[in-house]
Amino acid sequence: MLFFVFISCFSFIFLYNSIYLKPLPHWTSEMRLVSPFFLKDLSIATIIRFIRTGFYSLPLKMSFKNKSFSSKVVKFDDSSNISSSGSCSNSEMSLLDLPELVLECILERLPPEGLGGMASVCSSMRERCMSDHLWEKHLKQKWGEVIGPAAYREWQYHILYNKESSFFNQPEQKGLMNYLAKLWPVSLIRSNCNNDRSSCLKMKHSLPIDSIMSWYLALESGKFWFPAQVYNRENGHVGFLLSCYDAELCYDPKTDTFQARYPPHGRRAVAIETGVTWDRVRSAPIDTSPYDLHTSNSLNELRPGDHIEIQWRRNKEFPYGWWYGIVGHLELCDGDENYCRCPESDMVALEFNQYAPGSRWRRTIINKKDHKEEGNEGDGFYAGIRKLYGDGEIRTWNHLWPAAVLE
Q: Domain F-box spans what residues (predicted)?
């Protein structure tokens, strides 16, 4: 028995040593780069630095002396001339010859600027980098908090009535838009339009206008106006503190802020505000017109201490804004939780503690049973109520709390 065990172990050791001592082809050391395990050591910072420090100055091909690959690729050279020679030499490997999983994971890690740089390399890479699933993540990460159903409808309206996009026709481009100039409108189109009209039109329409990438770039361009809401409108005017009003916004890529246009208030002209920061912008939580009363469905749930937003307008010619408040106790209640019967009443007290005690804006009473617009020309008109459930919204309002009590 021991003899057979000894023979088996000896055979295994001999075979192992023979394999270990046999030299492997030298190209196997380079093949490690295309292993999925390579992704564990691939940092996003390295990829970004690779894109920003001269993507076009680096070779697209890796040398494999004893391996041959081919890839049908239409490439752009640095002079914006298109080469359709079509194939790599037998001793080189194209970027597109990377395993599908590796290439897809690299693209998913790239920021928008990186995808724009990759897309300008060749036609095959362009198709990959324009995929909706790659851009959907970037759209949600950067724009998810400020665009909603109303903004999407505005974009669909633009697609329907604008066959061509003019968002990229700008004389000076920087960052992501600089990469896109290599792909679509300005530099390549101008250089080719004089010689080949059909080539010009083909290049200009290479980006589908109904793609997520196209919507992302329209938002980034600084030319697309979309509906959203702005906290503390008109640079925090004292008359609008702790409120949120509907507006049309346009992004300013130079300052990373927004320009806002507010609808007219009666005879008052359209108000325009610049330099609106990201923390003051949100998508409308209720998809309704600022002139329509919101039908509240949470009135019977209101309890003292709940955080709410309520529609208010100065007069009936004005649009509603959303104002932050807290549910308080009725006058006959002493505030003791053990004996509080406020939730059972048909009336609910709303408090706006940013105003000083005794101010006419400090407190109001709303009828829950027969809820409709209530008020007068002196105190304004209160309308729909929206209960706040998420801590994020409450933190946003607390962040905007005025430094001094309002009169």
A: 92-138
